[in-house]
Design a protein that fits this description.
- The protein is of the alpha/beta class and about 475 residues long.
- It folds into four domains: about 5-115, Udp-n-acetylmuramoylalanyl-d-glutamate--2,6- Diaminopimelate Ligase, Chain: A, domain 1 (3-Layer(aba) Sandwich), CATH 3.40.1390; about 125-235; about 245-390, Alpha-Beta Plaits (2-Layer Sandwich), CATH 3.30.70.2730; about 395-480, PucR C-terminal helix-turn-helix domain (Arc Repressor Mutant, subunit A), CATH 1.10.10.2840.
- About 45% of the residues lie in helices and about 15% in strands.
- The chain is built from 17 helices and 14 strands.
- It has helices at about 5-10, 60-75, 95-100, 115-150, 155-165, 215-235, 245-255, 265-270, 295-305, 335-340, 360-375, 385-390, 395-405, 415-425, 430-440, 445-455, 465-480; strands spanning about 15-20, 30-35, 50, 80-85, 105-110, 170, 180, 190-195, 205-210, 280-285, 310-320, 320-330, 350-355, 380.
- Strands 1-5-4-3-2 form a five-stranded mixed beta sheet.
- Strand 4, helix 3 (about 95-100) and strand 5 form a beta-alpha-beta unit.
- It is rod-shaped, with a radius of gyration of 36 Å.
- The model has no long low-confidence stretch (mean pLDDT about 85).
């Protein structure tokens, strides 16, 4: 119900005297407020239609009329209906002047039309409109419920909602990061917000761009907000993957690869939407076992959506407690780690490792290296290389055979104690205290085992090159097993 609807109704015979500002005749009327108070503002609410005979305002001083209209505009009300009759035979000039000055729509009601007729008409129209809005809202909620039940994604549900309200609709988290959107706002810049009924730990809102009235939107989107909240909760808490099959196949192949980009790996990259010969970036997001899966998923989703603003291609794969993001085609000179930092300011407990690679062959090894770094909280850059990565990049079967032969004499000890001792000795750079603490042995036992190892392998562990060779051999055998 709008002011323009009242003017167009021939039965009411209402005359429009002041149009107000641009578009004010289309302001919705929420209810009728008959009043004779000089200051009715304590009894009014936004978009009320004020009806008065001006009994308490039979004055000629323009300043009184100006103050009266200024108080109505402060609410603001939808308009003012002034009834002619015993108190005023015609509209006061001061009232007309004040309404024109403040941009308040002013309507003149003839003496033979009672306020009751206007109020009854407005109430009937508003009730009919609210019934239609509520019906449309529940029908939309019912349709979206069926879409969700049939397996449609949250994006599909938002598309239907955006189409229904003819505006842009977006879901944002409590830090105003946009997780998902649909539709277009067009030329409108108005923005409204509806809170989604979600838990305190994961507060989400529905942003509507193109409509500036949550009062109008509530009957239509109120019911469907619950559907969106439920689907959002399921999406972020479900064990079912959000990633595409192509992205999962490609990233799994990268984790299993040894460095050389095979023909299938290049094909997987193309099918996933990447340029095989381009440069790459990777972001690994992990959480501790006690970390809420919904929060991990929500923050990872936020990072994925946010990175799409800076990178042409973003793909991801979910695992239990770990999400891997791959990006390509960087925009500008911003480093990936700088672009990533802002998405995790409210989640310092998560472990985020950022890695960059110049080629597909390097990407596989770099991705595996980054995965080994996940665990410590905070955002950090992965090392360029580590021993395990270098070893995995040596696909020589001959080298594997040589390493097995070098360590074979240690198999004489069926308990594996000698091999464990050599491994601990090399990892702890010969520190007796750390080796003994790890293996729970006495220093004398350690000395005995080290002499035995030197005798069996015919080596001198005091030689740095020999120690490096043994460390590589152990790594190669471990990688090949």
């Amino acid at each position: 119900m709008r002011i323009s609807d009242l003017v167009k109704d021939p039965d009411l015979n209402i005359r429009l005297r002041v149009t107000g500002g641009e578009g004010l005749l289309d302001r919705p009327i929420t209810w009728c407020a008959p009043t004779e108070h000089m200051d009715p503002t304590p009894f009014l609410s936004v978009n009320a239609l004020v009806l008065t005979n001006g009994m308490g305002l039979n004055v000629r001083d323009y300043r009184i009329w100006d103050a009266y209209v200024e108080r109505l505009i402060s609410i603001p009300v939808a308009g003012l209906v002034f009834g002619l009759g015993a108190a005023h035979r015609e509209l006061p000039a001061g009232l007309i002047q004040a309404c024109e000055a403040h941009g308040l729509p002013l309507l003149e009601l003839p003496p033979d039309v009672p306020f009751l007729l206007v109020m009854r008409h407005v109430d009937l129209v508003i009730a009919s409109e609210r019934h239609a809005e509520m019906r449309a809202g529940w029908e939309l909620a019912d349709e979206c419920t069926r879409l969700a039940a049939d397996g449609h994604s949250l994006a599909g549900v938002l598309e239907r909602v955006a189409h229904a309200v003819k505006a842009r609709v977006a879901v944002v988290d409590h830090n105003s990061f946009e997780l998902l959107s649909a539709g277009a706002a067009g030329a409108e810049t108005a923005r409204s917000t509806l809170r989604l009924p979600s838990g305190d730990s994961h507060r989400f809102q529905l942003i509507i761009e193109g409509i500036n009235s949550s009062v109008v939107l509530q009957p239509i989107l109120g019911p469907v907000a619950a559907v969106i909240a439920m689907q959002l909760s399921y999406t972020l808490g479900s064990r079912s993957p959000l990633h595409s099959r192509e992205a999962a196949r490609f990233i799994e192949a990268l984790y299993e690869g040894a460095g050389a980009p095979s023909a299938p790996l290049r094909r997987y990259a193309v099918e996933t939407g990447f340029e095989p010969d381009g440069e790459w970036g990777a972001v690994l997001i992990g959480g501790a076992e006690q970390e809420a899966p919904a929060k991990l998923r929500a923050v990872a989703w936020r990072a994925r959506v946010g990175l799409q603003d800076s990178y042409g291609t973003v793909r991801f794969m979910e695992e239990s407690g770990l999400t891997t993001l791959l990006v390509q085609q960087p925009a500008g000179s911003v480093e990936l780690i700088d672009a990533v930092q802002r998405f995790f300011t409210d989640a310092p407990e998560l472990s985020v490792v950022v890695s960059e690679s110049g080629s597909l062959s390097e990407l596989s090894l770099a991705l595996q290296l980054a995965r080994r770094q996940v665990g410590r909280p905070g955002v950090r850059r992965a090392p360029v290389a580590d021993l395990a990565g270098i070893v995995r990049g040596l696909p020589s079967q001959g080298l594997l055979g040589m390493s097995h032969r070098l360590l074979a004499p240690l198999a004489a000890d069926s308990s594996g104690a000698l091999r464990d001792t050599l491994d601990a000795y090399l990892r702890h750079s010969g520190s007796s205290r750390e080796i003994c603490n790890e293996l729970f042995i006495h220093r004398n036992t350690l000395s005995y085992r080290l002499r035995k190892i030197e005798e069996l392998l015919h080596i001198d562990l005091s030689d740095g090159e020999v120690r490096a060779t043994c460390l590589l051999a152990l790594s190669i055998v471990g990688a090949g097993s």
